[in-house]
Amino acid sequence: MVNLAIIILAYNEELHLARALEGVVGIAKEIFVIDSGSKDRTREIAEVYGAVVIEHPFVNYAKQFQWALENAPITSDWVMRLDADEIVEADLATEIVEKLPTLPREVVGINLKRKLIFMNRTIKHGGRGTLVLLRLWRRGYGRIEDRWMDEHMIIHGGRTVTFEGGFADCNLNNLSFFTDKHNKYATREAIDALNQRLGFMKRDDSLSIEASSHQAAVKRFVKEKFYNRVPFQLSALAYFLYRFVFRLGFLDGKEGAIYHVLQGFWYRFLVGAKLEELSRAIRGHRTPSEIRDTLTRLTGLTLH
């Protein structure tokens, strides 16, 4: 084991949790599962693997994770963010054990290369084959962005390195779950995009190449400076064609076609449509509090 704490946010994750814990239970000194009221066997599974389960009501991912960083009794020198449907493969576990204790003090963050497995197929094309994400950091040197969607870890006081071992996003739920989840994501992303335009809530703009992964920072810049300024009827279609044709998404086969159409076109179009709907609903509002009150009523999200 290494001086590492794992934090997993969970709600009804009995389908995935044991698999996620199998990948880290042998290497991490501490594992914390922050549960938001699961009705299934999530707590039982976590406790079987020796994880500490802490109950806390959920507002959004960013607030829940930051609460965990500030309130879980973490004593380890390093902290790792792990989603319940993610897998730390054996070679990455070995890399963490061998390299983590040897890193110089100026290294405060570690990027991981996450692959995507969808409908039992590894998606290799369309710009989605490998996402480089900051997922490990020295305790006290990292925080999560305060955003409703697309939140990333941010580090300060040092530099990052990248590990090469296997790391995978592999959700086992069906397409009904996938579309329902992305429908909820679309509402949150529309809120963030609307806030970018109108500034009715505090906005976290801390993501940078120095503070997170280069890939994540560049994608954020392109989305907010260019993509979000194009009418969604055009941007969603152009983005899909870019992924499916120019980035060779069609080579991912039938499963890839389903994924790229749903996530690369339908989801992007839905975000734009919801942004249009919410913009119309707050037309004529004069104050940030009026905007927040209306959006809270329409979306069910507690905005402040």
What does this molecule look like?
With about 300 residues, the protein is of the alpha/beta class. The protein has 2 domains: about 1-170, Spore Coat Polysaccharide Biosynthesis Protein SpsA, Chain A, CATH 3.90.550.10; about 175-300, no CATH class. Helices cover about 40% and strands about 20% of the residues. The protein has 9 helices and 12 strands. The strands form 2 sheets. Strands 1, 2, 3, 4, 5, 6, 7, 8, 11 and 12 form a 10-stranded mixed beta sheet that branches. α1 (about 15-20) links the parallel β1 (about 1-10) and β2. α5 (about 175-200) crosses α8 (about 255-280) and α7 runs antiparallel to α8 (about 255-280). The model has no long low-confidence stretch (mean pLDDT about 95).
Quick rundown:
By secondary structure, this protein is of the alpha/beta class. It is built from nine helices and twelve strands.
